[in-house]
Amino acid sequence: MRTRQRGSQMGLMLLAGQLFHLGLDNIPPVTLVVLGLNVYLFLFPAVPLMQACVSVYQAYWLMDWRRLLLSPLHHVDDWHLYFNMASFLWKGIHLERRLGGPWFLYLLCVFSLLTGGLYLVLEFVLTELTQDQSYSMACAVGFSGVLFALKVLSNHYHPGGATYVMGFPVSNRYVSWVELVLIHMTSPGTSLIGHLAGILVGLLYTVGPLKEIMKICAGYRSSGGGYSGYRQYTPPHYSPQINPPTDDYNSGLTEDEQLQAAVMNSLNDMGQSSQRGDPLPYDFHLSEEARRAEEIRLRRLRRFDS
After folding, report:
1. Pair 254, 233: CB distance under 8 Å
2. Which secondary-structure segment (H or E) carries 94?
3. For 123-267, where are the E strands, in sequence order?
4. In the chain, N or C: fewer CB atoms in 10 Å?
5. What is the mean pLDDT of the chain?
6. What pTM was estimated for this model as a whole?
7. Nearest 5 degrees, angle CA 118-CA 123-CA 126?
8. Which pLDDT score is estimated for 294?
């Protein structure tokens, strides 16, 4: 997050060269679309930059809440865009492949809104503590707050190892905090509070309640039925051929959680099959005695039906 400057188009050229070298086919779709949206809005801004940046004064006091949507997608200059998108490209490729496209897109939307919202809270607290109104007037813009949240998430999935910062190895557990300080010291005009808000949002997801809250929200569908990655609901006259289950958000689960969900789904399917008189899925490793007993029960049911 930064304040307005305008430079050359060298950053755009470098970004285009990096995309060409990597190959568009090697970039997952959500990452590619979000990157393209940021580039498009840099070339053709939805609103002037001063109407896109977010601040306590503009968003809270003047009630211009649309800035929470606009500020992450607009950038100060081509270098600001290049460094943010180059960083997002690497993080997006790894995280989208790990989490899956639908969950990664959901994650980006939530992180973008929460980073802006937490930025406003922190700036408001600073204003109250220092009685300095300049904090409420500070207007920030850019995707870097979201990038800090994604960096915390990426480091959470790779807790071991170290990252070299200015030639010194730093544990992945603390590298976000070190970069927060270094960027603020070496790049005047960057928003320390905006980057801090991103780190806190990342921590809310990795060690706080945010992930569970997102799971609960993703588990409900406005259509009033069907299957999501976290809840099972069988409406009246349910037919698996007519209403096949979907698992759009299952990629947001850990591997252990996915395994548990698969086991529960198999148990549910087994119970429904026995009620309909259908053969059980014997590849579920039932004991031989249980199989024989079930076969005898099914033969009796079919004899009575006939």
Report:
1. no
2. helix 78-99
3. 162-165, 168-171
4. C
5. 77
6. 0.69
7. 125
8. 52
Distance (Å, whole) CA 86 – CA 290? 57
CA 171 to chain CA mean position, Å: 23
Task: Classify residue 69 by burial, with Cβ atoms within 10 Å: 0-12, 13-18, 19+.
Answer: middle
- Grouping H, G, I as helix, E, B as strand and the rest as coil, residue 23 is coil
> Per-residue pLDDT averaged across 156-166, rounded?
79
Active site residue 195: yes
Catalytically annotated residue among 74, 75, 80, 195: 195
Tokens linked to 147: 């990038």
CB atoms within 10 A of CB 214: 18
158 is catalytic: no
Residue 161 pLDDT greater than 80, yes or no: no
Q: Which of 55, 144, 176, 228 is catalytic?
A: 144
Q: Answer whether residue 98 shows pLDDT above 70.
A: yes
Task: Calculate the alpha carbon distances from 153 to 52, 72, 131, 149, 216 in Å.
Answer: 27, 18, 34, 6, 19
Q: Which residues contact 139 (CB under 8 A, 6 or more apart)?
A: 3, 50, 53, 54, 55, 58
Which residue in the block uniquely carries the two structure tokens 């007037």? 137
Q: How far apart are CA 15 and CA 77, in angstroms?
A: 13
Which tokens go with 89? Answer: 């490209």
CA distance 146 to 92: 11
